Amino acid sequence: MRQRYRIIIIDDDPITRMDLVEMLQEQGYNVVADGKNGEEAVALTQLWDPHLIIMDVKMPVMDGLTATGIIRGQSDASILLLTAYSHKDVVAKAKTKGVCAFLVKPVMEEEFLPAVETLLLEKQHTLEK
């Protein structure tokens, strides 16, 4: 069941990407691609048409909020934003860009996996309608 969903991980820190991919794959999720900046997020979204994009906010080349704004014009993928900043302005801007949920770094498995599962369940309900 979990394998049917396509997930993309976007974070400029390769260790964070590796950890997230490993956590998801250990639970049977299908991580189809990963990238290091928002520009890659946009390109990978066009290539893979993911169900879920897990993306950092602060990255070089293009940040996660800018990428989310572009992706929203092309895809209905759920977007889980990862941020080291829990400032109200970041949260408010994330909402206007179409972010579905966010987690504050460092990401803990006991928070991360339920968030992923919830977003994919919501996606499943949308697909079934």
UniProtKB/TrEMBL annotation:
Q: Which residues form the signal peptide?
A: none
Could you mention a single GO BP entry for this protein?
phosphorelay signal transduction system
Database matches in Gene3D superfamilies = 3.40.50.2300
Query: Does the entry feature the keyword Phosphoprotein, yes or no?
Result: yes
Q: Which residues form the Response regulatory domain?
A: 6-120
Question: Pfam families attached here?
Answer: Response_reg (PF00072)
Where 4-aspartylphosphate occurs, residue numbers? 56
Key words of the record: Phosphoprotein
Entry-linked PROSITE patterns: RESPONSE_REGULATORY
In which domain of life is the source organism classified?
Bacteria
The protein in question is named Response regulatory domain-containing protein
- Organism expressing this protein natively: Brevibacillus parabrevis
